Amino acid sequence: MKNFFLAVILVFSTLFSSACVDKGANTTTTGGDTGGDIKVGVYGDLTGGTASFGQSTKNGVQLAVDEINAAGGVNGRKITLVIEDDQGQPQQATTVVQKLINQDKVVALLGEVASTNSLAAAPVAQAAKIPMITPSSTNPQVTERGDYISRVCFIDPFQGSVMAKFATNTLKAKTAAVLGDNSSDYSKGLTQFFEQEFVKLGGRVITKQTYAQKDQDFKAQLTAIRQQNPDVIYIPGYYGEVGIIARQARELGMNMPLLGGDGWDSPDLWKLGGASLKNSYISNHYSADNPAPEIQNFVKAYNAKFNVAPDSLAALAYDAAKVLADAIKRAGGTDSAKLKDAINATKDFKGVTGIITLDANRNAVKSAVVLETDPSASKFNFKETIYPEGMSAPADATSNTNTMMNSNTMSNAGMTNSNSMNSNMMNSNATNLNTNSTMNANR
Length: 443
Known about the structure:
Structural class: alpha/beta
CATH class of the largest domain: Alpha Beta
Number of helices: 13
Distance between the termini: 71 Å
CATH architecture of the largest domain: 3-Layer(aba) Sandwich
């Protein structure tokens, strides 16, 4: 009899619980998983001053999603992209992310490229508990906005130090000038970290000049720099201004090396700077010349779909989408908390921009490449790879990394000349890649 009453109580309890379910509460913003297609939001600058960055990012994500869906999707579900243009404006980035979350009900966000815009949008994603992966915002503060925010790129403290090491050890520079964008968190961060490392290595930053984004005349700043005659000029800005700066510098007879970061990487750079870009170098995330099969498969597929070679922003966006798909698979769905945890647990994911492991702050720990400008061919050529402290070239570098070698083996500061941009095929935990499927940013 006791068992009978317990059974009756259990039945009524179950019926009562079922009756109390709010059918409208099972939404992505509250961590539910309703099945069907997986909606992912993509936001970036598609029509503003850095539209080349946004277009590359959109293309990279699209290629990855096309491949994922062609291979059967994630756990049998297709990914659907909802793409928004923030026009390169922080306030607009906030607005479009609010729309993607509240109206479109996306389960995750991919974007932005500009650190300033990511910093504006990240608090919205964090408050809504929607995971956001930025492919290429390198300012350290971005992931400090909360545990739902992560990235697949290295960060500015490392990128700034890379060019300081290159200037010191490879170019033998003793003095440097900096010409930075005072309206950009990206540029200000790189200026800080370049100077710190350059001074640490025994160099001197003898003058720092600034400009504002969309400026067109830099001759006053360049003239002040010319008077100091530095060995190198570090220009941590974006392609729209950098191309013009290079041209005006050469017009003033300034032929020293120009150094920069990944913000230079755009097909539009060559249109703006032309031959003036000769004798310039940048830090970047990958080299499209890397012969590793998975990188060349990516380059071939991107070229076939978009009729242009993929820059680093496209490659990072591709990796970000693949990392997200891999995390959804490991999480068993799109429950926001579980998905966040799966993204943050990403380890040894083999992407086209390197082996991606997220640290405790949800930043990717990976190597960087130094590329030399080749304006005659409108392309960047691999120069060398520089690793973070404590990281060295993989043991299997000859089989699955960029085996291009610089004839002068570097020994200083732990640098090596084989481009160890990772390799092997995409992480087997990610959805099966269809490499035969076919696929331009303000940090």
